[in-house]
Amino acid sequence: MSLHDQLINKDSSGIKASLQELPSQDKGPAFEKLLAELYKGNGWLVSIQGSRGDEGADILLYHPKTPQTVSFIVQAKNHAKPLTLDQTRIELIKFEQQAAPRYKCQQFRIVALNGFVEEAGKLGQFNILLDSWSHVESLLKHYNPGKSTEPKIELYAHNRATYENIQELWQKTDHVAVVQATGTGKSFLIAQLLGDFQGKRKIVLAPSHYILDQQKSKAPWANEKTTYWTYAGLARKSEAQITSLKCALIVLDEFHRCGADVWGKGVQTLLDTHPDAKVLGTTATPIRYLDEGRDMAEELFDGIMATELSLAEAIVKRILPAPTYISALYTMEEEVGNLLTEVETSNRSEEEKAALRAEIQAHKIDWEKTSGVPEILKKYLPPDINKLIVFCKDQQHLDEMEIEVQRWFQKAGIHRFREKYRVISADPESKQNLEKFKDAKAKDTVYLLFAIDMLNEGLHIPEVGAVILLRPTESPIIFYQQIGRCIEVGKDHTPVIFDLVNNFRNLRVTDLKDNLREAEEAIKRTRLSFGIEAYSPVVHIEDIARPIEEIFDSIYERLSSWETQFSALLAFKEKYGHCKVFPAYSDSPGLSIWVTTQRTLNNKNQLSKDRVHRLEAIGALWDERTETWERMFSKLIAFKKKHGHCNVPSYYAHSRALGTWVNTQRTFKTKNRLSNDHVQRLEAIGFSWAPVACKQKWERMFSALLAFKEKYGHCNVPPDYADTPSLGNWVSTQRRLKKLNQLSDDHELRLTDIGFCWDLPFAVWIRMFSALLAFKEKYGHCNVQKTYADMPSLGNWVSTQRRLKKLNQLSDDHELRLTDIGFCWDLPFAVWMRMFSSLLAFKEKHGHCNVPPDYADNPGLGAWVNAQNRLKHKLSKDRIQRLEEIGFEWTRHRISKKK
Which CATH class is domain 324-543? Predict the structure, then answer.
C-alpha cells in the first residue's frame, strides 16, 4: 500500500513503518510532505520550505484568519533514534538565530518521528514544542482534507507547559490558579480546558460581556453545556439558581476581581455549592494593590499556581513581542508652572527672576519643538499602526482629551483623517462603538478608541498596535493591563506604548527597566546552564522627559543656596536619623528635590570633592532604590508608633503609597527578592508577612472549626455543613496544603492540637475496618453481604477492598490488616471450596460423587455438582484436578442427569 493510500485509510502504524523503511536520502523530504499534507487536512495554510539551508524551517503554518502572519515554524526530523539533547539544542539555536527573525515568528515546533531523549525535553522551556509520533497520530485522527475550515486550538509552548501543570495539580487539588501576563493567550488555555470537559456542565465567569464574547469565539465547539456569566450577573442569582448549575468545571477569569465584596459573595456561593468541581482561575496579577494588597491567589487558591509569568519574563522569553516604550509628558505646563512658582517665591532679585522666567520659557519652547506630543507621535508611531486605545482618568477627562488627542494627530500629520470612538459604562452605545472600531479598515485614517476602565483587561483587538496612557494610577494592575492592550502573543509588529502621564519623580520607567533586567539575567543563567548563549529581544525605552528634567533640576539647584539646603538636611537627619528625605517633608518642601539633584550631580562627577565629602560624612545615600526603601521604612515605623502594628491599609490617609509598599515587601519576600537585611529589619519591628485578610480569614475559620468540634466531637466537617457553608472546603484545603508542604508550621500545630484528622480517607477506612472486626466477632467470617441490615455500607466497602486489590490499588498496609483477620480475597473461590468440602463429606458417606438433585441434607449441592459438569470447559485446571482426584465422574454424571 502506498503512503498516500495509508494516509487516506489513516493507517498510523503502516505510515510510520513506511517512513522508517525509506532510503536515508528520502526520509526527511517524505516526512516533511506527510506533515504538510496532514496540517492542510487539519485546516492550516501551509508552505514547505525544507531543503538545504532552510534556516531551521521545514514548514510554515499560517492560520486562515491571519494568513499574512506565520503562526508556527515546524522542523521535521525522521531519525532512526530519539533526538539527543545536542541535536535538539542545535535546532533551537538555528531557529532563534535564523528562522525566527526571517519569518517574524517566535513559535517553534520540532516533530521527531522517534521522539526525544528525556534530557532534551528540558529545552521545552525555551519557547519550543517538542512533539513525537503522537502528534502525527493526532493530526491523522482529525485529518479531513477539503473540509477542515479552521485548525483546532494549538497551545503555544508556554501554555502547553501550563496546561500540563494544571492537569498534574488537579490530581492533588481541585483549585488551581494561572498567573500570566496579559496577552500571553490565557483565553486559548481556557478554551482547551473547556474542550476537555465537553459533554459536562461548565461555567466561565469574567468581569465583562466583552471578555465573555471573546472567549465564546475561541472555542465554539465547547460552548455546549457552558454557561457564560459576568461576576455581576452571578451576584444577582439566588443560591438555588447557582446550585442548579451542577458544574464539573468553574473558570474564574480575571479572578483578582473576586475580591470585591458583592462579586466575592457570589463566587463563594458558587464554590460552596460545587465542592467537587474543578476550579481554574486566570489573571495577569492576583494582587489587589488598592485593597490592602490582598493576594487573591492565596485567598481563593491557597497560593497553588500552575504558572507565574510576568510581563517582563514574557517579553524576555520572546513569548510577547518586545514593545517600544515612550515615556513623555503632556503635562509640561504643570511642571513649568511649579518651577515658576519656585522662582517667584525665591529670594532672588526681580532682575534675576525675569532672567530665570525667560530661560524656563525658552527651554519649554525648545522642548515642544522636539519633544512635544505631536513630534513624538510623528517620530515613534509607524504609519501602518492606525488603531490606538487612549486611556483616560474619568469621563470629564475623556471629554477634554478627545479634542486634544485629535489635535496632536492633526499636528503630527501621520494620517489624513481621524475617527474617534468612546467605550464607557455610562454610554449605551459603547458596544456599538467597539464593533465599529473593530470593523474600521481605511488605511489613511487613524482610529482612536477612548476608554476609562472598560477595556483594561481581557479584551484583545488584533489591529490595535499602540496605546496612549493619560490616566494617572497607583495600581500596577491597571498600568500593566492597559499597556497589555497592544501586546499579544503571535503579533508580528512592534507594539508602541505612549506613557504620557509620567512625571519627573515617577518610577514607572525605572521599574520597567529593572523588571526587564532581572528577567533577562535569570533567563540568561538558565540558558547558559544548557550551553545556549543569551538571546533576548531589545526593548526600546525612550525617556523623552529626562533632558528637560535635568535642566529643571539644575534651575531648582540654582534657586536654593547649597549651604541653606545642607543645613536643612542636617536638621532633617537630626530629626529622623537619616538623610533619605521624603517628597512630602513639610519643614523644607524643596529639600527632597535638592537631595535628588545632589545624587544626580554626584553620579555625573559634577559635584565638588568638598561637597561630596560633607554629604558622605552625614550618611547621604546615592542609591535611589535604597533611598526609597529607607523612606518608606521610616514611614512604617511612624505608623507603628501611632497605631501599634504594621498592617497599613491601602487607603491610609497620610500615605496611600505606604500600604502598597508594605504589601510589595510581602510579595518580594515570597519571591525571594527581599534582602536578608530588609527582612531582619522588618521583623525586628514586628512586621507580619501574611496578608492581613488571609490571617483574619484563617483565624475566623479556625474558630468556626473549634465550635464544630465542641458540638460534634470531631473535626471532619461535611461539605454541606449549614452553619458555616465554607467550613467544609476550608478543612479540605488545610489537608491539601499539608500534603503539598504549603501549610505553615504554626497552623499545622494548632490543628493537630485539637485532634484534626489529616488523612481523612485513612480515618474512614479504619472506621469501616473496625465495623468489619465487629461483624467477624459476631458471625465468625468477613463475607459481609450487601444486604447486611445492621450496616448496609459495610457490604459495599468489603466488595470495594476486593476490587481495589484486584486492580493493584490497595495499599500494602490495608491488605496486610485484612489478611491478618482472615479476609477472603477471592469470594467465588471460597464459595467453590465450601461446596467442594460438602462434596467430600457426601463421598465419605456414600462412596461416590453422584449427588442427586433432591439431596435433602444439602439441597444446593446437587445443583452445584450439575453446574461443574455443565461448565467443565470453563473450569480451571486446578478445580478439574481436585474433582478428578476424588473420583468425580463427568460422563456418568451427565447420563445420570439425563435419566
Answer: alpha beta
* DSSP annotation string for 401-458: HHHHHHHHHHHHTSSSEEEEEEE-TT-TTHHHHHHHHHH---TTEEEEEEESSTTSSS
Of 151, 39, 52, 60, residue with least CA distance to 105: 60
C-alpha cell at 292: 490592602
Listed residue (176, 181, 152, 150) closest to 164, CA to CA? 176
Which are the contacts of 827, defined by CB distance < 8 A and separation ≥ 6? 783, 802
Query: What would you measure as the largest C-alpha separation in the chain, in angstroms?
Result: 140
Residues in Cβ contact with 530 at an 8 Å cutoff, skipping those fewer than 6 apart: 89, 122, 123
| Residue 63 identity (one-letter amino acid) | H
pLDDT of residue 622: 55
Question: Which residue pairs from 336-340 have beta carbons closer than 8 angstroms and sit at least 24 positions apart in sequence?
Answer: 336/360, 336/361, 336/364, 339/552, 339/555, 339/556
Extract the C-alpha cell encoding 36: 504538510
Question: Model confidence at 450, in pLDDT bands (50, 70, 90)?
Answer: very high
Other Cβ atoms closer than 10 A to 403? 9
Question: Which candidate, 101, 149, 181, places its Cα nearest to that of 488?
Answer: 181
- The x, y and z cell numbers of residue 470, run together, are 493619560
**157-309 and 324-543 have identical folds:** yes
The span from the CA of 686 to the CA of 664, in Å, is 17
CB count, 10 Å around CB of 281? 27
Residues above pLDDT 70, as percent of the chain? 89
457 burial type by CB count under 10 A (0-12 exposed, 13-18 middle, 19+ buried): buried
Q: How far is CA 537 from CA 69, 106, 157, 481, in A?
A: 19, 11, 18, 21
> CA torsion angle for 561, 564, 568, 574 (degrees, to 10)?
140
> What's the rounded Cα separation, in Å, for the pair 146 and 149?
8
By the 8 A CB rule, do 198 and 221 touch? yes
Residues 537-562 have pLDDT tens digits of: 778 888 787 777 778 877 776 776 78
Using the structure block, give the residue that is written with the C-alpha cell 464574547.
Answer: 213
Alpha-carbon radius of gyration of the chain? 37
Q: What's the rounded Cα separation, in Å, for the pair 577 and 264? A: 44
> Into which CATH architecture does domain 3-141 fall?
3-Layer(aba) Sandwich (3.40)
Residue 741's nearest CA partner among 758, 717, 716 is 758
Rounded to an integer, what distance in angstroms lies between the CA atom of residue 594 and that of residue 585? Answer: 12
**CATH T-level assignment (fold) for domain 157-309:** Rossmann fold (3.40.50)
Domain ranges of the chain: 3-141, 157-309, 324-543, 548-645, 692-753, 760-820, 827-898
Give the DSSP H or E segment for 181: none
pLDDT tens figures, 317-362: 888 888 888 888 776 777 788 788 878 877 777 888 898 889 888 8
Q: Are the beta carbons of 786 and 799 closer than 8 angstroms? A: yes
Q: Is 297 exposed, middle or buried (0-12, 13-18, 19+ CB in 10 A)?
A: buried
* 253, 220 Cβ separation under 8 angstroms: no
